[in-house]
Amino acid sequence: MNTVKIAKLLVLGFSLAYLGGCQSSSTPKQHSSAADAVSFQESKLPGGGIAFPHNERIHLSTDQKWIASEGHLSDLIRLQWTAERAKPAISWADEKGMDKTAIVSHDKANNPEQHDHKHISIETTMSPDGEHKDQLFTRFEIPYDTDVSEIRTHSSNFNVMDGILRVAGEGNRDIQFANTGENNATTPLWSLRADDSGLAGNNEGGDFNVIRYSDQGEALDSALFVKRSDGNVGVGTNKPMSKLDVNGDSIAIRESKTPASSKAPGNKGDIAWDENYIYVCVAKDTWKRTELSSW
Fold first, then answer.
1. Which uninterrupted H or E stretch holds 16?
2. Backbone angles phi, psi at 31, to 5 degrees
3. pLDDT value at position 41?
4. Which of 138, 137, 140, 160 is nearest to 150 (CA)?
5. C-alpha 130: how far from its chain's center?
6. Which of 47, 56, 144 is nearest to 96 (CA)?
7. CA–CA separation, 169 vs 72, rounded Å?
8. pTM of the shown model
9. How many angstroms separate the CA atoms of 116 and 108, rounded?
């Protein structure tokens, strides 16, 4: 341990002792032990640094308010970067001193040619046998310096276990699928939407849409619409008048089928066709047909 480190440790030790003395003068001492005299020391664990004695607890408390004009007095732990590309982090390491997880906040990217990051992120290591072996990688990030934060995940699957994933609001409620472009800009491709039509009672309003977008991210139309009040489904229309309402000039059943007989297996409402007939199942295992002719 060099002289500078020894001096730092002494200052920290005296500071703790002073703070302890101040506390004891204003509040009754609840217990006394060898822990009252502890001080920071040089860490012998992998990675080094200054360490608090093993198995001791650091207890921070405050009665101050979070007030910007007074310097946010209740920020008991402050990690501050002092160079524009520095990345203050809280990391968790294994028994060998290898970082496995971390919470990182930073402003600039490592590469000066990349856009500013401006986010706090949760990072975990990549696979031990992959291309980026054991490297910390961002899995979840929340931007700052913005009024609305676009929360992002990277190389992560979002799994809700035995619960409900809910999107609530008064306007359109969307789950969107998009393309990622330069500087992480996103262009929507599809949206699953409960629309902003007003709730008027009798199950009216909040109808379901599948919205498709142009290459420029502009909404084109509702490719599929489901009316909440009666469950009618519209294809190319948002005013379906029957259980399935297609706004188009044709419907295709691609594969032909010829029932073996009028008593062949089938369910009421099944429709089939071949080169000579159209078949309709009018009751369980009961088919009727009409002949096709050229004109």
1. helix 3-26
2. -155, 165
3. 84
4. 140
5. 24
6. 47
7. 32
8. 0.67
9. 5
